[in-house]
Amino acid sequence: IKTAFVKQHSETAFIAAQCEMIPIEWVCRRVATGSFLKRNPGVKEGHRFTPLKMEMFFKDDANNDPQWSEEQLLAAKFSLAGLTISQCEVDIMNRSTVAIFEILEKAWATQNCTLVDMKIEFGVNVKTGEIVLADVIDNDSWRLWPAGDRSQQKDKQVYRDLKEVTPEAMQMVKRNFEWVSERVQLLLEPQASGRVVVLMGSTSDLAHCEKIKKACTSYGLPCSLRVTSAHKGPDETLRIKAEYEGDGVPTIFVAVAGRSNGLGPVMSGNTVYPVINCPPLTPDWGAQDVWSSLRLPSGLGCTTVLSPDAAAQFAAQVIGLSNHLVWSKLRASMLNTWVSLKLADQKLQACSL
Predict the structure, then answer these.
(1) Strands (E) located in 32-165
(2) Beta-carbon-side half-sphere exposure of residue 350 (alpha carbons within 13 Å)
(3) Are 254 and 313 in contact (CB under 8 A)?
(4) Which of 71, 257, 302, 307 could, after both became Cys, cross-link 261 (CB 3.0–4.6 A)?
(5) How would you write the pLDDT of the chain (353 residues) with one tens digit per residue?
(6) Distance CA 213, CA 285 (A)
(7) Residue 159's CB: how many other CB atoms inside 10 A?
(8) Residue 166 half-sphere exposure, CB side, CA atoms within 13 Å?
(9) In 92-121, which positions are buried (b, 16+ CB within 10 angstroms) versus exposed (e)?
(10) Is 91 left (phi over 0), alpha (psi -120 to 50) or beta?
C-alpha cells in the first residue's frame, strides 16, 4: 500500500516523502463506541458494523473537527500538489482506509485483540501526484480491546477516561502503551507457516514453473521446484509427496504437466493437502490436453488454473486463511488492482473530454 514512508532514520525518526496533506480525518469503525454513540442515539455500544462504518471529519480545531459528508468534501474542491480532489480521489481514500483497517484488524486478531476503530489521514505526494497514506498510525490512532473487552482497553482512551491524573494513573497508562509496543512487534510474525511445492513432469516446463515461484515470492510464500513424473516414476512422485507431508508444514502442491496430466490427479488421490493443476498448454494440442486436468475420476479434488500467476494467487489465498501476513499481501494487491483500474478509467474519461 502506497505510503509517504521512505526509510527509518533512527529509533525515533523516519524519512518521508514530502506531501501536501488533505485536511480530512478518515475514521473506520468495526464496533460502535465513543462519539459515534453520542451522534447516533439508540445505537447500542458494541454494535458490530459489517461492512465497516466509514466517516469523514474536516480538520478544523476551531470548530471541533466537524463531520463532513462526501458531498461536502467534493464541494470543497481541494487542490493539493496540483491534484484536485474529485470523486476518483475520494473513492481511492475510502477504499484504502477500509483495506488498511482490515489488514491491521487481521494482525491484531492474532493477539486476541479487537481493533475497534481507527483514524488516518492521506496526502498528495508532491513529486508523483499520488494519493498516499501520510499519517503515523500509533496508539492515538485506534481503539484496542483485548479479547473484545472494553474494560481492558489499551489505547489512549485510557488516559482520556482518567478522572484524576495521578502518578499511579500515569503508570497504568505507561504499562498499557508498553503492552501495545511489545505486541506491535509480534504483528510482523506469522502465526502459521506454509509453502508451495511445484512439481513438474519435465524440465522443459521450467520457465512455466519459474513464473509460479516468482508470484509465490511476491506473497511471501516459500516455493520449491521439483521434477517428477507420475507416469514414468509413480513411486518417486509418492516419495516426494511423503517428504513434504512428514514435517507438518502446511503445503500446497502445484502440478505442472503437459500432454496427459497424470501428476495432479495422482497427487490429489494420495494426499489430503490441496493440489492445483497448472498445465503448460501449447497452441497445437492445448485444447485437447487440458481435459486430462479437468475431467477427473471421482474422489479427486484438485482444481485447475491455467495462469501461473493465478495458480500462485490461489495457493496464497489458501495459506492466507491461517497466515495473516500472506492474507495482508493479498488484500493490498486487491486494493492496488482496484486503484489502477479507477485511475485508468479517470484518465480515459479525461482523454474523451
Answers:
(1) 48-58, 67-68, 79-80, 83-84, 113-120, 122-125, 131-133, 142-146
(2) 8
(3) no
(4) 257
(5) 999 999 999 999 999 999 999 999 999 999 999 999 999 999 999 999 999 999 999 999 999 999 999 999 999 999 999 999 999 999 999 999 999 999 999 999 999 999 999 999 999 999 999 999 999 999 999 999 999 999 999 999 999 999 999 999 999 999 999 999 999 999 999 888 899 999 999 999 999 999 999 999 999 999 999 999 999 999 999 999 999 998 989 999 999 998 899 999 999 999 999 999 999 998 888 899 999 999 999 999 999 999 999 999 999 999 999 999 999 999 999 999 999 999 999 999 988 76
(6) 25
(7) 16
(8) 4
(9) bbebbbbbbbbbbbbbbebbebbbbbbbbb
(10) alpha
Question: What is the amino acid identity at position 128?
Answer: T
Cell of 106: 487481521
For the whole model, what pTM was predicted? 0.93
